[in-house]
């Protein structure tokens, strides 16, 4: 069931409360920009399915209301209380905490990390360049993992 919506340009955040099982709220960040890219097209599809399940009239063009997520979030507020079927996958976020001579740094979105003769290397999500921490400034490091649910798809429930 939808319990809250809010805008966080270029995304709309929709919070769902499961009706069965673990009642921990699930947050879905629905991307609306850049227009025409696959992530935005998928986001528009999710929003249209939410409107359909809530029996709310969708605008002719979801990008059109000011090209902003605030207007879409306002429309989604009318959907609060609607029942939606979510397909959720369990994901794990890896975090690396690094202590150096200059302080403590927390790196999120870690894909892989390791040590070599030069120091510590960290590969992050998003295809960013490899982050390197020289051995001379590295005091210690620790990794941790946080599980979280990720919404894979949103569907209209069977009536």
Sequence of secondary-structure elements: EEEHHEEEEEE
What separation lies between the terminal Cα atoms?
A: 15 Å
Strand adjacency order, main sheet:
1-2-3
The helix content, as a percent range, equals 10-25%
Oligomeric state of the chains?
Answer: single chain
Describe the global form.
elongated
Largest sheet: 3 strands, antiparallel
Number of helices: 2
Structure description:
β6 (about 110-115) and β7 (about 120-125) form a beta hairpin. The protein is built from two helices and nine strands, in the order βββααββββββ. The strands form three sheets. A three-stranded antiparallel sheet has the order 1-2-3, with helices on one face. By secondary structure, the chain is an alpha+beta fold.
Put the structure in a nutshell.
The protein has 159 residues and is of the alpha+beta class. The protein contains 2 helices and 9 strands, in the order E-E-E-H-H-E-E-E-E-E-E. The strands form 3 sheets. A 3-stranded antiparallel β-sheet has the order 1-2-3, with helices on one face.
List the helices and strands and how they pair.
Layout: E1 2-8, E2 11-16, E3 26-31, H1 38-54, H2 69-77, E4 85-100, E5 103-108, E6 110-116, E7 119-124, E8 131-134, E9 138-155
Antiparallel strand pairs: 1-2, 2-3, 4-5, 4-9, 6-7, 7-8
